[in-house]
Design goal:
alpha+beta; globular; 499 residues; 3-stranded antiparallel β-sheet
Length: 499
């Protein structure tokens, strides 16, 4: 059985405009050295025949010149020479972690390759960590015996597909898992307690409390019973909040740290026997769906309808099969609005001559004729070409989170989760990925952990193709991917028994 999630994005921001201000987490680390796992579960790096030795610093740059430097995931450990090879658009050498005997957490396989000249540098970024969460003391406020409970560990994989620059993807790869850790701190004791989550946590210092709040509510008969909230939904909420905090931090730091562009995010979190997967595009295991101007048309149109000032005098929230012409004023044309999935006819008026909020089809679909994604991190400075209209209010920073319970299935060593950026999925389909998985994994012993890196490399090479006179070509002579390609292969057998 092949288990995989297609990816490239999970796009993110408040659908009603800029997010409301939130207090900055005082103890969120700002440097990579202060994160992640206790020594007992330090992450390892996988074998790879094509690896390059070296190092890379993920610390935030202090100047625009430093920010512009080409950087790759820390776990690749690329030397200066390795960085030059990784940045070579002509050679497009596949990069994987070095063959040092240490492996990425969970024996995860990873491979990447730069684009064929689409952008100056590789705008994909990746992160693979084991993160330790130490709970805040006495969160629940319940009187209990001195607790010997420990913190929680979660495994984390993230792919970030940047656009209009790699700054947002690089920042998200360094910090998003720390925001998730911060959001989980209040939940450590709660998640380890079999009782239902408490309705309220104790008030923090400086927060007023009321001993008698009966005057604030009406008779109990007017209220429905308390809603059931599961531990799983608390983790999902923590992840959703983490994405919003990450987007807000990008907004705050975009000037001082040159956080250019935006990025799509594909993230997997393994915690307490379950995987929370934030993704776009999936069929074999339907864990995801596409987020594009077409799939989110009604959400975008509704926002344009409710807040017409966001459209200025340049756009209309209505959709027509094609651009309306002045000569068609007074005629009836097919259209649909935010409430419609089908089409109807309306009389064309002057304001219908404006450019549609959502235009184009498939890969050419765009929001405000500018951007082809509707959920992501960053893009705070993005404006319509030759206009002052911001596009950010139409982009959502909230991911779609789906949960896969690993404890409910028996997984063999050939069961894997494949995460890839658009560079993979633009030229590869599910059946082709399944065939590659079967072909590559069958050539290795089931207990050989290097098989997953070999599979990641094979998937990247299969999507890249080989150089010919007319560019990079696949075996069927079709064009290979000219985009950056990044692939994680996660064996669903996991680090041990699921308990």
């Amino acid at each position: 059985m092949l288990n995989r999630v297609r990816s490239a994005v999970a796009h993110l921001v408040s659908s009603g405009g800029a997010p409301s201000p939130r207090p900055k987490s005082p103890d969120l680390p700002n440097s990579p050295s202060s994160t992640s796992a206790p020594p007992a579960v330090a992450p390892e790096a996988p074998k790879s025949p094509s690896a390059r030795p070296g190092n890379w610093s993920g610390a935030p740059a202090k100047t625009s010149e430093a920010r512009a430097r080409f950087s790759r995931p820390t776990f690749l450990q690329l030397s200066p020479g390795g960085l030059r090879r990784a940045d070579d658009h002509a050679g497009r050498a596949v990069q994987s972690p070095p063959d040092t005997g240490r492996r990425l957490p969970w024996s995860t396989g990873y491979a990447e390759v730069i684009n064929a000249g689409k952008s100056r540098h590789n705008e994909d970024q990746a992160c693979c960590e084991v993160v330790y969460v130490e709970g805040r003391r006495n969160v629940t406020g319940a009187s209990r015996e001195p607790s010997s409970s420990q913190g929680l560990c979660f495994y984390y994989w993230g792919l970030f597909d940047g656009h209009a620059g790699g700054g947002a993807a690089e920042m998200a790869s360094r910090l998003l898992h720390r925001h998730i850790r911060e959001q989980l701190k209040d939940l450590v004791e709660i998640l380890q307690d079999p009782l239902p989550p408490p309705l309220c946590l104790p008030s923090t210092q400086g927060t007023p409390s009321f001993s008698d709040s009966s005057h604030l509510v009406g008779p109990q008969s007017c209220w429905s019973p308390q809603k059931e909230v599961t531990h799983e939904s608390l983790v999902v909420g923590a992840i959703e909040n983490a994405f919003q905090f990450m987007d807000e931090q990008m907004a705050q730091e975009r000037r001082g740290h040159q956080v250019e562009g935006g990025c799509c995010a594909l993230v997997v979190v393994y915690l307490l026997g379950k995987m929370a997967i934030i993704v776009r595009n999936g069929e074999i295991i339907p864990m995801s769906r596409e987020f594009t101007p077409e799939t989110e048309r009604q959400r975008l149109q509704l926002l344009g309808f409710l807040k017409p000032e966001l459209l200025g005098s340049e756009f209309t929230h209505l959709e027509f099969p094609r651009r309306v012409q002045p000569k068609e004023l007074g005629q009836k044309m097919l259209y649909r609005d935010q409430n419609m999935t089908g089409w109807a006819y309306k009389k064309i008026e002057l304001e219908d001559l404006r450019f549609p909020l959502v235009c184009g089809e498939g890969k050419k679909a765009r929001v405000m004729a500018t951007i082809g994604v509707t959920r992501g991190l960053g893009d705070h400075n993005l404006k319509v070409c030759s206009s002052t209209l911001p596009i950010k209010p139409f982009l959502s920073c909230f991911p779609e989170v789906r949960v896969y319970d690993l404890t409910q299935y028996e997984h063999c060593p050939d069961d894997v989760l494949v995460l890839g950026t658009d560079g993979l999925w633009d030229v590869t389909n599910d059946c082709e990925v399944a065939a590659t998985v079967d072909r590559v994994l069958s050539a290795y012993e089931p207990n050989d952990p290097s098989r997953y890196t070999a599979l990641a490399q094979a998937l990247v090479l299969g999507a890249r193709g080989i150089p010919r006179d007319r560019g990079w070509r696949l075996p069927n002579n079709k064009l290979g991917s000219g985009d950056d390609i990044s692939v994680f292969v996660i064996p669903l057998g996991g680090p041990g028994s699921y308990s």
